[in-house]
Amino acid sequence: MQPFIQLRDVDIAFPVFDAQSLGLINSLVRFSGLHGRRAAGPAPMRSVQALHGINLSLQPGDRIGLIGHNGAGKSTLLRVLSGVYEPVRGEMRQHGSISALTDIMLGMDPEASGLDFIITRGIVMGLSKREAGEWVQEIGAFTELSERLHMPVRTYSTGMLLKLAFAVATAITPDILLMDEVVGAGDAKFQERAQKRLHDLMARVSILVVASHNEQLLKSFCSHALVLRQGTIAHRGTVDDCLDFYHANP
What we know:
Blueprint: E1 4-16, H1 19-22, H2 24-32, E2 46-58, E3 63-67, H3 74-82, E4 89-95, E5 98-101, H4 114-124, H5 129-133, H6 136-143, H7 158-169, E6 176-179, H8 188-204, E7 207-211, H9 215-221, E8 224-229, E9 232-238, H10 239-248
Parallel strand pairs: 3-7, 3-8, 5-6, 6-7
Antiparallel strand pairs: 1-2, 1-4, 8-9
Organism: Comamonas piscis
Protein name: ABC transporter ATP-binding protein
Domain ABC transporter: 29-250
């Protein structure tokens, strides 16, 4: 079966907790009825609607850009596509391996070594421990951190952490690549290598979804786009068409 992702009428909502709803004593009293009777019940929980009525079908060969202001729902949609967030309404179906360059430092324990991080992330991405271990030499050479990989990552600078996280996140070629704005790290020489590595990866995958404010990147790698506004798809079409809509409807 070929890789695909399909969303049908997907809603995402996040609960909003106030001080009262988080109070431990209040919760215990409400649950156990310490005064001989149960409380009337919790106050209705409020929520914030992050995405609403999202319909999207991704097939092999699709190169989709996500366009929108900060807070429009681009990163939330990427996390839905990657399986981090489950819809509160609607349906998501997918097949194929997915790599998400959204939370690239996920699983980075400060006390663990760089080697441990490589192995852990490899297993999370579906590899065996042996397969993940085969990354070590290549990642060490690419990041120029070979001599530091056995040291705890708390001893790394921020730039070193980002180098390592980026190298691990781009070490495997998935069926589906989901990419948010990627933080740059390192000197100009490393940036050049990182851009080539990323561009090569984007060209190899079957399905690509990119959320970016970089219009040139979207034009270079995407054929179509979605304009997100307040958690809904406001427009869809070619990249140029969507950029025109985005600028004409600020």
